Amino acid sequence: MKVLVDEMYDGIDIKLKEFGYEAYSVKKLIVEGKKLTSDYSVIKYAEENEMVMVTEDTEVGKACKENNIPCVLLDNETIFKIILEELSQYKNR
Fold it and tell me: DSSP code of 53?
């Protein structure tokens, strides 16, 4: 599985590779010379390369959903669910 990590999560690509994913960072791809400075370019790149997009940008998430591009959207709602899950282990202390 190929994963494209949006700029704000640069570094997560390295950790994903440790778990066996073929992961790429938008930030690193730009440094390599790829023209990925707009949301459209990033989404199109993910689509053309059959990648799952990882982002916290809700506009990118919406565009992925509208265009049937797999996406992990780490928006406030998702982060809040993670916080609740983590807090639950301390609830009965």
Answer: E
- Give the list of residues 6+ apart from residue 17 with CB closer than 8 angstroms, or none: 23
Residues 18-33 pLDDT 10s: 999 999 999 999 999 9
In contact, 5 and 16? CB cutoff 8 Å = yes
Domains of the chain: 2-88 (3.40.50)
Q: pTM for the complete prediction?
A: 0.86
Coil, strand, or helix at residue 76? helix
Q: Specify the pLDDT at position 36.
A: 96
Dihedral (CA of 56, 62, 67, 73) sign: positive
